[in-house]
Design goal:
Low-confidence stretches: 2-17, 22-37, 65-74
Structural class: alpha+beta
Distance between the termini: 60 Å
Helix content: 25-40%
Largest sheet: 4 strands, mixed
Number of helices: 5
Order of helices and strands: HEEEEEEHEHHEEH
Number of strands: 9
Shape: globular
Strand content: 15-25%
């Protein structure tokens, strides 16, 4: 009995740390949220953000896996194969989140701090996926209320092409999910869950210093 209680408590703690891996259904039950779909190769996918920035996303085709029997191939990390470019040659962070995820709300003030600290050296782009993992009425209205309640200044990507990006990812592990790309649009690192602000700050500072060194 003690082992059962310990397992339940440990599971709850892990859920709180990693973030939201399930979504709330209309009946209030927790349902499977981020289902894998057949991936597609992205080529010059255009995403418009609320600050009128145009993001262009291309995907490096994944390497073909050898046809070996009895060997389970690892799932390709599609984030590593994306090239994310904008008009600005700065670091870029894509922030995947949902409005109902508490860790997502919790990380927003930290992102606002980093946004103020680094200024135009870093661009943050919020990509809400509420409508991609469940049925949502008046999605843009929900996002407006969410921004007002959380005092968010981070530009958001709300256009229909979000679904093409989400589909190409083949489903994501959970939210919040942050993916960092360099000034040329190449993948650097990604974070899943409630990551400490100091960790993100260190990686940003490190990569900015590498740019200055060149």
């Amino acid at each position: 009995m003690k082992w059962i209680k310990f397992s339940v408590i440990f599971g709850l703690l892990c859920f709180g740390f990693l973030g939201c891996e399930k979504e709330k259904g209309q009946d209030g039950q927790i349902e499977q949220s981020i289902k894998e779909k057949k991936p597609e190769i992205l080529e010059n996918l255009i995403l418009q953000s609320s600050d009128e920035t145009t993001l262009i996303i291309n995907q490096i085709p994944p390497k073909e896996q050898g046809n070996f029997k009895n060997i389970e191939s690892k799932k390709e990390n599609i984030l590593k194969n994306l090239i994310v470019t904008t008009q600005q040659e700065n670091l870029k962070i894509l922030v995947f989140f949902t409005t109902w995820c508490d860790p997502c709300k919790g990380i927003l003030p930290h992102l606002e701090n980093l946004k103020k600290q680094f200024g135009e050296q870093i661009s943050f782009y919020g990509i809400p996926i509420d409508d991609l993992v469940g049925e949502v009425e008046n999605f843009k209205g929900i996002m407006q209320i969410f921004n007002e309640e959380n005092a968010t200044t981070m530009p958001l990507i709300l256009d229909a092409n979000r679904s093409k990006l989400f589909n190409a990812l083949g489903g994501i592990e959970g939210v919040p999910l942050l993916a960092l790309y360099d000034k040329d649009g190449h993948y650097i690192i990604h974070y899943l869950g409630a990551i400490p602000e100091e960790m993100i700050e260190f990686d940003l500072s490190h990569n900015l210093s590498k740019i200055k060194a060149h």
